[in-house]
Amino acid sequence: MSKLSERLLTFNAGLLPDMLQLKYEAMTENPFRFFRGTCHLFFEDLAAALPMPLSPLTWICGDLHIENFGSYLGDNKLVYFDLNDFDESVLAPASFEVARMLSSIYVAFDALKFDEGKSDKMAALFLKTYTERLATGKAVSIEPRTAKGIVCDFLMNAAKSKETDVIKKRTVSKKKKIMLSLEDERHFKVEKGLRKALAAQIQEWIGTSSDGPYNYKVKGVVFRLAGTGSIGVKRYLFLLKSTNTKNKYLLLDMKQARSSSVLPYTEVQQLAWETEADRVLAVQKRMQYVSASLLSTTIFQDESYIIQELQPVKDTLKFKLLKDEYRDLYQVIDDMATLTASAQLRSGGIQGSSIIDDLVAYGKSADWQEPMLAYCKSYAAKVQKDYRQYLRDFKHGVFNPETAKLSTEQPVS
């Protein structure tokens, strides 16, 4: 067994076994999908590399890549384009976030067969816009009135989406009753006892939490599969029905919160969060301009979970559709860089993060930029190599449950 596979098996050991096999299969799709599913490898490798120039401490989402930006409905009922995944969030050097994002550009553009050289231009553009926005010291947001180009079109289309659209996609009608569909490949049946306990948990949350919707009753629950890195964590989808408005339904996502995979590779003192879900929500609220609708936490069977509405407007841009649209591609990367810097500025000076003056100075400094680009481009090449090794090991059954069990029980030579 390769050292790479040992690292993967060790990290993923605590995930749900059946779902973990789906994660391993998903990671065979291409190098970018592999990159998305191995955030822990990225930061382990970063920590082992030559030290990067010092950077200010900031709150980071931790797993920043081109598909962790998207649209969502804010609690003010407006649609925004912003960072949208904070499971790995921690207090860390700003360079951590930038390195992950730049590496994702190199890895993704190659995997999506973009023209040679476009990744260099887009990585340089991201870094240029990011530093320029930091240097202004002013955070901005992107919503339909301020968006440009394809991002504006994306948000305008998202704003037109209706609750009934997502309900129709996720449910079926039987005997005049609406229920969650088990024909959807992302949905899995939940055992009866667990289903009842989950329904009771959410029903109590509705009745007692100030974050919850009023006058709704739980009508169904399924296990939900989503993402790449998070495949294997406990995640459930609930169908709620209004008790005072006819034919009005709501979908809720409840996702297990685990320790950040970035944490072992930063020496920064972290806050003593009450739960992992509290960490995720707190950082998300600091970094996003407006919080998402129905964002909350709960404790179920001694584990913390993040609760949020499954929205019809929540979506990510499909980069493969922008392959030949250079102007659109330019605008999207420019916006992502602006939002990354804005999130760091917005959360500046909060409980250990650097003040705005330090972030401004970092944006104006040039000595770290070329080494950063060089590292990220070389790391993308390493991802390609690791991906090829992963495919070999996968084909040889290394990630088969029985093989993996025997391998982990043997002492590593």
TrEMBL record:
UniProt xrefs under Pfam families: DUF2252
Highest taxon in the source lineage: Bacteria
InterPro entries documented for this protein: DUF2252 (IPR018721)
Xref: PANTHER family: DUF2252 DOMAIN-CONTAINING PROTEIN
Protein name, per record: Uncharacterized conserved protein, DUF2252 family
